[in-house]
Amino acid sequence: MRFKAEIDVMPLDALLDPQGKAVTGSMKNIGLEMIDGVRVGKHIRLFVEAASRGEADAKVEEACKKILSNQIMESYSFTLEEV
Amino acid sequence: MRFKAEIDVMPLDALLDPQGKAVTGSMKNIGLEMIDGVRVGKHIRLFVEAASRGEADAKVEEACKKILSNQIMESYSFTLEEV
User: Fold this and answer.
1) What domains lie within chain A, and their CATH numbers?
2) Is A37–B50 a contact, with Cβ atoms under 8 angstroms apart?
3) Which of A38, A76, A83, B6 would you label with B45, given CA atoms 20 to 30 Å apart?
């Protein structure tokens, strides 16, 4: 079975996000002052071959922990869909 | 009304994604060879004040076009949720 994973990796809420803060500032400059609280992270799409949804979930979890996120500064979440 | 937008900005499928390609290679090095086709984009979370869902949608659309994505190289999609 082949699954597609859509993964979000975001800076932890407790941490400052300078990039998000800069973007929030830019919104005001282009007349979008009703937008605030911008936070910028990564979105990762990948495919995984696995015998079951449970196995695919475990592999994506492992990828998130080992490569895709830095758990000191970031949190991750993902959805899996069979393709 | 206050809405939270969750925005994905991804490199267009027609374009190479060197970062994604590097991550796909790294997966093999750490024993996750069942993972492939990695593509890396941005995930942006923001809040918008608007009188209606339609107005919020239009403001987020404008932000995506003007600041958050480069439409020559990237596509975007988002979801809105009242908070």
Assistant:
1) 2-82 (3.30.1280.10)
2) no
3) A83
